[in-house]
Structures are given as C-alpha cells and as structure tokens.
Write a structure and sequence with these properties.
By secondary structure, the chain is mostly beta strands. The protein has four helices and 15 strands. The strands form four sheets. It has a six-stranded antiparallel sheet, with no helix packed on it. A five-stranded mixed sheet has the order 4-1-15-10-11, with no helix packed on it. It holds the Pfam family Thaumatin.
Length: 222
C-alpha cells in the first residue's frame, strides 16, 4: 500500500511553490505594539520583537498597521485603544481610526508592487515601510511624533484622529475627487510626514514601486 502513495507524493514535491512576498514587522518602540495585518492576522510585539509572514503573489488591498492599548483574553478577543479591528487579535479587515497605515498591492499588471503609508485614518505610531530584496531600496517613512503637535480638535486617546471620522463632512471625507482638496488638517499631516498620503486623493508622489515578489520590512518607531 505504501508504494501506491509514492508517485503522488513525488509529484507534489516537484510542483512549484506559490510565489509570495515575505513581510517582516519589527517593533523598535519602547512600548508594546500589537501588529495588525490583512491578510496575515495579528500578533503582540513587545519592544525588540519582530514577526515574519508571507503574502501570496497577486494580493491587492493589503494593509499593515500598529495597534496600541490592547487587552485580549486567551481566545484572542478583546479591544484596542487605537487601530482596533473588531475586537480580535487576528485581524481580517481594517482598523479603526486612528492608525498609521501601510498599504500595498503585489505584482500588478506590468509586474510591479505598489506600496505606501497613509495618514488618511489618522496617526498612532511612527513607522517605516522599506523593500529588502530585488535591488529595490526606496520606501516611505513616517518617523515624526505626529501626536505631539496634533491639532487640539483631532486629539483622541492614544493618537491623532482623522478629520473625516471626527467631523464627518464632505470637505474632509472626500466623496469624490472633485470635492476633495487639501485642508489645514491634511497639510499638518503632510508637513509631518511628506512621504505619506494625507487625504484620500492626495497626489501619487506618496506611492512607491518595486519589482514583483520583493520582500518588505515594516518598522514601528524607526
């Protein structure tokens, strides 16, 4: 009976592995950060700890962000002060404002990855998003302490909130490109982190590109 299973096992061993990019998430902060990733899930990172996982080739709409002030029980249910994703440790969707967000789309038509940092959902933790392979070296960083000078009306527990969530008006929520222009709040975020998106239809200079199947490192408190 064992011999009958040998050929299928050999065929499986010869199949090519699905292409993927490796994401390394490191916490250089002096405090605990709960990393969140969609796809990927989430994990608690104490100071100095890191987390590595693979993202399949062709993934679009990917995101990674930090969460702070979290408490989870043994089953992974709980709550975070910033960046909460439905009260679970292993995220599957997006995080609540405020959170410093990294976004990516892997191996698009033309064979390129696209990635960026967005402050459209506000700010909680400084971070950088850098490629680490394929000879690609350029990526965005948002290392400023945005919370320290956050406008009083955007200040929320644990971070600097986004004006759409706080005010809820078209001026800040940008329902269409024609109704979306820089505001004093987006200009504040841009002044702190020029390489980041500061409002939904910000210019594309904040988008970076690398060859497909590049690996990346995201560092909290770079």
């Amino acid at each position: 009976m064992a011999a009958q299973n040998t050929l299928p096992l050999l065929l499986l061993a010869l199949l090519p592995l699905a292409a993927a990019s490796t994401f390394d998430v490191a916490n250089n902060c002096s405090y605990t950060v709960w990393a969140a990733a969609s796809p990927g899930g989430g994990i608690q990172l104490n100071p100095g700890q890191s987390w590595s996982y693979n993202v399949p080739d062709g993934t679009t709409g990917g995101r990674v962000w930090p969460r702070t002030g979290c408490t989870f029980n043994s089953t992974g249910n709980g709550h975070c002060q910033t960046g909460d994703c439905g009260g679970v440790l292993a995220c599957t969707g997006s995080g609540q404002s405020p959170n410093t967000l990294t976004e990516y789309s892997l191996n698009n038509p033309g064979g390129l990855d696209y990635f960026d940092i967005s402050l459209v959902d506000g700010f909680n933790v400084p971070l950088s998003f850098k490629p680490t392979s394929n000879g690609c070296t350029s990526g965005p960083s948002c290392a400023a302490d945005v919370n320290a000078q956050c406008p009083a009306e955007l200040q929320v527990p644990g971070g600097c909130g986004d004006p759409c969530t706080i005010f809820g008006t078209p001026e800040y929520c940008c329902p269409s490109p024609s109704s979306c222009n820089p505001t004093k709040y987006s200009k504040y975020f841009k002044s702190q982190c020029p390489q980041s998106f500061s409002y939904p239809y910000d210019d594309n200079s904040a988008t970076f590109a690398c060859p497909g199947n590049t690996n990346y490192q995201i560092v909290f408190c770079p």
